[in-house]
């Protein structure tokens, strides 16, 4: 290495995995055996995605840059013999995607150091990669709850002759998994033909799409389990498990050139029947407690009568965001004791109306009609007469009248006795019968 014995990069605490928005720091170490002239010592940190059209080709046909930062740790001068260390620190953008390495592309993050020497001298450089992990929380993925199921019906042909159909139904117990979890696969095969099917199988598949002028699709089988056959005119239910190995997550947020998808493929090799069950691979597993909370939030209970505002004031207070304590229900008013009404001593000013045969006088509507008492109930006094066709008074309709049975005329309210009925035994009316009509005319 000539004058330079050591040129290396190290990260603080030997950390190699970082998260978006985190800072990365470390030191650059130099050891020279004799004086070395330099123009500058620079440290660069960058992240990018490169895609190629050939497998493991280091020449990128398409690139996408995420960040590129440089800092100068030493100016022009001469490095004396011995060891030298230069610290550095960079901030990783919060939008940077997760690291990825595939057959046709990579997402790379690295720190590089450069020693720029005078003209005609050799330049030196060093490089060290680090990995970026942006956690994918499966609980935040849309439409992630529930099982994933599908069904397909395939015509069974043998020797160019159609012998029946095969119905294949399959499902997974969840729609999202993390590495280390188990995928529960269940399938039901109904062979409605006269031939025995081939073996059934379930596979965890990964499909990576590299976006170039002509997109490249890289399809791989990650894991596979195999079952038995289904005899003619039989129905079989098959259950098996697939353990999820360490895999890149489904979404590379912030990357526009690489797309990762996962699905479970359930198939029969004879006849050729295949169905797919899309799933997601993430870093934070599903929490069933959140599923219950989401269901409860999606179907709120109808408001009860106790929650509705009972008065306009309560409704206005609810709209204003304030709370009014409930008011006690008003107590029913005491029903007044019915009082008997005394009749007037004046004679009627007009004779009672004559009604046709069979007709009855129309009574006015009175809610207290059951409390009325006939005036003739007090006609036990001699010489006291009450009209038999006198109409009962109507209910009070004039504001301000407080009597129990007000008069029909609004101008002269009827006086309601407040004590017991008068004692007519002490009345000054004559006790003898009146003289005949002829004697009255003579006098």
Task: Give a short overview.
By secondary structure, the protein is mostly beta strands. The chain has helices at residues 288-298, 312-320, 437-442, and strands at residues 4-11, 17-18, 23-32, 36-38, 40-51, 62-74, 77-79, 82-91, 100-101, 105-116, 124-132, 148-158, 161-172, 176-177, 182-192, 200-210, 216-226, 235-243, 258-268, 273-281. The radius of gyration is 51 Å and the shape is flat.
How is this structure best described in words?
This protein is mainly beta and 443 residues long. Among the domains are: 4-132, Immunoglobulin-like; 140-290, Sandwich (Immunoglobulin-like). 6% of the residues lie in helices and 39% in strands. The chain contains 3 helices and 20 strands. The protein has helices spanning 288-298, 312-320, 437-442, and strands at 4-11, 17-18, 23-32, 36-38, 40-51, 62-74, 77-79, 82-91, 100-101, 105-116, 124-132, 148-158, 161-172, 176-177, 182-192, 200-210, 216-226, 235-243, 258-268, 273-281. Strands 2, 5, 6, 9, 10 and 11 form a 6-stranded mixed β-sheet that branches. Strands 14-20-19-16-17 form a 5-stranded mixed β-sheet, with no helix packed on it. Strands 12-13-15-18 form a 4-stranded antiparallel β-sheet, with no helix packed on it. A hairpin with a 3-residue loop joins strand 9 (100-101) and strand 10 (105-116). The radius of gyration is 51 Å and the shape is flat. It starts with a strand and ends with a helix. It comes from Salarias fasciatus.
């Amino acid at each position: 290495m000539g004058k330079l014995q050591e040129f290396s990069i190290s990260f603080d605490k030997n950390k190699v995995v970082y998260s978006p928005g985190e800072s990365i720091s470390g030191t650059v170490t130099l050891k020279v055996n004799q004086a070395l002239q330099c123009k500058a010592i620079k440290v660069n940190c960058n992240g990018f995605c490169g895609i190629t059209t050939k497998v493991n080709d280091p020449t990128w046909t398409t690139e996408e840059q995420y960040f590129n930062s440089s800092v100068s740790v030493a100016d022009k001068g001469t490095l004396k013999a011995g060891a030298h260390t230069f610290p550095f620190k960079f901030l990783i953008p919060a939008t940077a995607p997760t690291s990825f390495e595939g057959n046709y592309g990579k997402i790379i993050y690295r720190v590089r150091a450069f020693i720029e020497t005078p003209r005609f001298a050799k330049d030196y450089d060093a490089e060290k990669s680090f990995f970026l992990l942006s956690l994918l929380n499966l609980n935040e993925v849309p439409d992630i709850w529930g099982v994933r199921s599908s069904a397909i019906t395939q015509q069974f042909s043998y020797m160019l002759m159609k012998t029946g159909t095969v119905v294949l139904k399959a499902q997974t117990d969840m729609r999202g998994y993390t590495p280390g979890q188990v995928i529960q696969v269940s399938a039901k095969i109904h062979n409605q033909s006269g031939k025995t099917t081939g073996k059934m199988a379930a596979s965890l598949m990964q499909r990576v799409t590299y976006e170039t002028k002509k997109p490249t699709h890289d399809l791989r089988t990650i894991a596979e389990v195999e079952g038995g056959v289904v005899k003619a005119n039989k129905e079989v239910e098959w259950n098996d498990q697939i353990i999820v190995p360490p895999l890149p997550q489904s979404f590379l947020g912030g990357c526009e050139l690489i797309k990762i998808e996962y699905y479970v493929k359930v198939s029969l090799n004879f006849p050729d029947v295949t169905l797919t069950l899309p799933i997601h691979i993430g870093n934070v597993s599903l929490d069933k407690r959140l599923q219950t909370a989401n269901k409860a939030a999606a179907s709120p209970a109808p408001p009860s009568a106790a929650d509705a505002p009972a008065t306009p004031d309560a409704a206005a207070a609810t709209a204003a965001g304030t709370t009014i304590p409930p008011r006690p229900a008003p107590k029913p008013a005491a029903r007044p004791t019915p009082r008997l009404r005394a009749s007037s001593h004046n004679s009627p000013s007009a004779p009672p109306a004559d009604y046709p045969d069979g007709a009855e006088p129309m009574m006015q509507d009175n809610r207290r009609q059951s409390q009325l008492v006939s005036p003739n109930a007090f006609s036990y006094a001699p010489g006291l007469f009450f009209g038999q066709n006198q109409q009962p008074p109507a209910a009070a309709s004039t504001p301000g009248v407080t009597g129990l049975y007000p008069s029909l005329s609004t101008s002269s309210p009827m006086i309601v006795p407040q004590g017991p009925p008068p004692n007519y035994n002490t009345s000054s009316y004559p006790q003898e019968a009146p003289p005949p009509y002829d004697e009255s005319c003579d006098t």
